[in-house]
Design brief:
- With 186 residues, the protein is mainly alpha-helical.
- The chain has one domain (2-185).
- It has seven helices and no strands.
- Helix 5 (101-127) packs across helix 6 (135-148) and helix 5 (101-127) packs across helix 7 (154-185).
Length: 186
């Protein structure tokens, strides 16, 4: 019961913070959403729990963005692809639970960031009219996506740096909780 309350409180706080991170000014795609999805998959044996936090944060922040900027932030053509990417990254995190922490952070973070880039830019190409539905159009779409990240390759920084930061915060939190639990047991 106590562990469930801790999970609920931590999950609600994390949802609020991740949602807020999407609402404040930031580099393109430099938010902890993918890190939360990846690390949730790594940390929770229950796959459903690993999906709750990133999806709830996305829904909450999309609704807030919709109120501020218009309905296209709440419902848009690539949204199923974006949410699908978040779910896939969480499931990927679950699959790499046996990896060493450094490999999860560096390898998993890089794979998550690149996977998100590939899937969401493919979605822009397949569901839009901006690019011709040909190999040339697909290449042009990915090239435009890379140009979007010209300010330092933010999709890689997001995957690696935010995953590293989140993993570090989780490690500190787990150690703190373990020490408190050990102290209460004595």
């Amino acid at each position: 019961m106590k562990n469930q309350r801790l999970f609920d409180t931590t999950a609600m706080a994390t949802i609020a913070l991740v949602a807020l991170s999407r609402l404040i000014p930031h580099w393109p795609n430099f938010t902890p959403v993918m890190a939360i999805a990846l690390m949730g998959g790594v940390l929770f044996a229950d796959r459903l729990r690993s999906l709750i936090v990133p999806i709830a944060a996305m829904i909450l922040s999309d609704l807030a963005l919709g109120v501020v900027f218009g309905s296209e932030y709440v419902l848009h053509g690539t949204q199923p692809w974006v949410y699908g990417s978040v779910i896939a990254i969480s499931l990927f995190g679950h699959a790499i639970r046996s990896w060493k922490p450094a490999a999860v952070v560096l390898g998993g973070g890089t794979i998550a960031a690149i996977g998100f880039f590939i899937v969401t830019n493919f979605a822009v190409w397949i569901s839009g009219t901006m690019y011709p539905h040909s190999i040339e159009g697909l290449v042009a779409c990915y090239a435009a996506g890379l140009a979007f990240y010209r300010d330092g390759g933010n999709f890689l920084l997001n995957g690696i740096l935010s995953t590293w930061l989140f993993a570090s915060a989780v490690t500190v939190g787990v150690r703190f909780a373990s020490r408190n639990q050990a102290a209460q047991s004595n």
